[in-house]
Amino acid sequence: MAHLVWQDDLNTGIEEVDNQHRRIVEMINHLYDVEQKDDKEELRKVLVDLVDYTQSHFAFEETLMEEAGYRFSRAHKKVHELFIRRVEEYRMRFDAGENIVQELRDTLTRWLLSHIRNEDAAYAETVKASMNALSTDQGWLSRSLKKFFG
Ligand SMILES: [Fe+2]
Ligand SMILES: [Fe+2]
């Protein structure tokens, strides 16, 4: 599988979320590049970064949804948790010496793109409306970003 290319139907219209999704796509592409080099240490670092970043993104998204009072935020959070658990299993298999990179990359690609197009797209309207209402509180977004991404 070659590099992923960003497609417009992946946009939620929420700038911060779209930037984070783009970054995840870049990281998946980077994983592909590093895989070609066959450097296990570097590969492990890229995997850990990808998982950490995805987890921060999920936490950020969950805050947005809760803050907006989105009615399916708990279900969405559950979906994130199940996915993280799946990815953790890959990490364990990797640490046990199995070559899971190709499989992980395919799973990540399929799962994340479908999640962005469906579950993430579904909260966009509610979150956008709430963000507009909150726009007087300029500090809120930067505080949340700082909290999850440092
Ligand atoms: Fe997302
Ligand atoms: Fe999500």
TrEMBL record:
Pfam family of the protein (one): Hemerythrin
PROSITE patterns according to UniProt: HEMERYTHRINS
SUPFAM superfamilies from the UniProt entry: Hemerythrin-like
Gene3D superfamilies in alphabetical order: Hemerythrin-like
Chain positions recorded as Fe cation 2 binding sites: E61, H76, H80, H115, D120
Keyword Acetylation on entry: no
Key words, A-Z: Iron, Metal-binding, Oxygen transport, Transport
Protein residues bound to Fe cation 1: H21, H57, E61, D120
InterPro entries in the cross-refs: Bacteriohemerythrin-like, Haemerythrin_Fe_BS, Hemerythrin, Hemerythrin-like, Hemerythrin-like_sf, Hemerythrin_metal-bd
GO molecular function: iron ion binding; oxygen carrier activity
Statement: the UniProt record of this protein carries the keyword S-adenosyl-L-methionine: no
Membrane-crossing segments per the record: none
CDD domains: Hemerythrin (cd12107)
Domain of life: Bacteria
Domain Hemerythrin-like, chain residue ranges per copy: 12-124
Complex formation: Monomer.
Family: Belongs to the hemerythrin family.
Biological role stated in the UniProt entry: Oxygen-binding protein. May be involved in a storage mechanism or for delivery to oxygen-requiring enzymes. The oxygen-binding site contains two iron atoms.
Protein name: Bacteriohemerythrin
Classification of source organism: Bacteria, Pseudomonadati, Pseudomonadota, Gammaproteobacteria, Pseudomonadales
